Amino acid sequence: MSIQGDSEFDPLSLEAIADADPYPYWYEDADEPFANPTLVRTETCDLCVVGGGYTGLWTAIIAKERDPSRDVVLIDAHEVGSAASGRNGGFMEASLTHGVANGQARFGDELPLLEELGIQNLDEIEKAIERYNIDCDYERTGVIDVASDLHPAGYTDELREDYLQLRQLGQKVTWLDAEQMRAQVNSPTYTGGLWRHDLAAIVDPARLVWGLKAAAEFLGVRIYEDTKATSIERDGVGVLVETPLGRVRAGKVALATNAFKPLLKRLNNYIIPVYDYCMVTEPLSDEQLGRIGWKNRQGLSDIPNQFHYYRLTEDNRILWGGYDAIYYFRGKMNSELESRPESWARLSTHFFRTFPQLDDVKFSHMWGGAIDTCSRFCVFWGQAMNGRVGYAVGYTGLGVASSRFGAEVMLDLIDGRRSRATETRFVKEKPLPFPPEPFKFMGVQATRWSLDREDRTGKRNLWLKTMDRLGLGFDT
Length: 476
Prior knowledge:
about 475 residues, alpha/beta, D-Amino Acid Oxidase, Chain A, domain 2, FAD/NAD(P)-binding domain, 8-stranded mixed sheet, 14 helices, about 35% helix, globular
């Protein structure tokens, strides 16, 4: 491994990942469903859903729940849930705006409504999990945003502002001082935390997506896998979706393609694929778990620009991810980019800085995947072909729960159905587009360098201040 000579990585951190399997831990589950057939003919339907992740599956399910007679076909380029939906950290956040601070900065006048809709959306997911008997280790334990002495002191002040704002919005939140925080989860680095009690859940993401697939099929959705949509065009009063071996003639089409190259050219400058990396430990023994507490099993996230997210799995492994967010020139995507040893080594180093008392813990799995990122850091919508085609993309890594909301609104738009959500600026407006290459790549790299500098010094440089003024700033 070429990173072994790098002084940034100590021997303990490297040894801990030496035997880890570069494969998503969630896919080890024996409940993975059998693959569906490839489309090899022409299908006709009322609604064609392109993409078999959370957004696509929720779109198909909600469409059938609203109208059981609606004929729905879903196609996916690979297997359902094989991309971001099946390999993420399993954090199910109520926020639709990627946090209250981002929501306040961009949609301040609508924030109370958006927070209400976000909680309602999480409640609806919980009901659907019960209704369709989806076994996905769902735990609504909340999440703690953690302040640490590894971060500039000003970040804690910003976290307190989030706490006060959430209280004003009537949310159930608790401010934890250093002692109270360490009583929840014990790290010598912790100086405080914001516990958002019922605003988040943790879940096994792969088993959730497989459960949604089963629910969709139970409702009568026809699903084809290994069926990549290669083009989309008008087809009389409907839409024609071409695939390598077949085609779908549909009255309407819902695009749920996440980070993959969009079928609509107009979207090319609105989203970029960014690779995120994570890992899980071997199961912790009761004695090891006792060193850190964590009896309430909350999800955790620290608060720098380059942040970590971590949580316990059902069998008491620690999933640890985040920090590096890598954009490759021209939005390059392939399976080789899901492996990045230097990111895993860096994550391992940060893990042991946070939990030095777990120096006998090893990692069993490590993997990566692409997330769809937009300049406002939360989902956006749009339509094409006289409203026959709708899309919902741009979740920026916080789509496990908001994907259901994205699907619901997308259906409202293509069906001409008005709701409280469709009347908001949040739904009506789009993010600012990214510039063309090579300026896109240069801008992303300049931003990453500047965010890292701010995390080390607490100072926001001219580049970041300019991004703030342009509406591109990100401080979460």
